[in-house]
Amino acid sequence: MGFFEKLKQGLGKTKSSFSEKINNVFSTFRKVDEELLEELEEVLIMSDIGMDTSVKIINELRDKIKKEKIEDEESVKKALKNIMKEILDVENSNLNLQTNPSVILVVGVNGVGKTTSIGKIANRLVREGKKVVIAAADTFRAAAVEQVEIWAKRANATIVKKEEGSDPASVVFEAIKKTKELGADVLICDTAGRLHNKKPLMDELSKINKVIDKELPECSKEVLLVIDAETGQNAILQVKAFKETTDITGIVLTKLDGTAKGGVVIGIVSENNIPVKFIGVGEQMDDMEVFNSDDFLDAII
Asked: Which sign, positive or negative, has the C-alpha torsion 224, 297, 269, 112?
């Protein structure tokens, strides 16, 4: 099965929920008017796109309908899809890994699929012919190091670890040393997933960033925030909270296959101006793909 088929299958719950609601709206209307737009706005809000983004989309749709004199259902749907695409294409979804080595810092609360995402991203990079080192710098959560080690082995990546409770910045320092020794292309750093008390997380990320800036001053750096799609609207709040602690360059959205809340992708990008870089639609090693707005929208509408 190709990834688009997996995506369609994985986003089945979102599609049946979203498309069904939109089709129900159109089935009761004979003309494109303000009442139709109000109903569509309600559907968007109920589909976890978020209040602000839903209002923004409908305002743009209203302008488009007037300007292009749209009068039929299919043209309204097409216009709606195009507006969503413009939102999702805020920036390139490809990773910025121009230097050798480059660094990927992975952040996110516990339980969102951070470790699995690291393994899957490492696997993709290794398959592309890159040499990858993983720093097991989430040293506070029990079994976090063991978990990331299992995924590193599956991906054929090199792991750098220390005992539980070690200083995360020191793990990153050792991992940078190993990256240089091996002439590796990419260093992926796991980090602790605390957000309830932001201060320790901010201090920790600040220390890690200082080590990276000192030891690899000119390197390309991605900071990827892993978000669980099943959390719906809460995902938008999580992105905002993490943005306060570090400069997020991209989103990794996991567990899209288990939820009807895939519409949250649009709200996340719109409200935070951060691109989605990867989406996960399953448990297997290759069930993660670079985000493509056309494929995503085709799979839900």
From this structure: negative
Alpha helices by DSSP H, the chain: 3-10, 12-27, 34-46, 51-68, 73-88, 114-127, 144-155, 168-182, 198-215, 233-245, 264-272, 293-300
CA distance linking residue 21 with residue 284, whole number of Å: 31
pLDDT (tens digit per residue) in 181-226: 999 999 999 998 766 566 777 788 889 999 999 999 999 999 999 9
* Peptide linkage before 101 cis (omega within 30 of 0): yes
pTM higher than 0.85, yes or no?
yes
Per-position DSSP letters for 257-295, written without gaps between them: GG-S-TTHHHHHHHHH---EEEEE-SSSTT-EEE--HHH
Nearby residues of 4 by Cβ (< 8 Å), 6 or more positions away = 295, 298, 299
DSSP 221: E
Residue 250, strand partner residues: 224
pLDDT tens-digit map of 67-91: 999 988 889 989 999 999 999 998 8
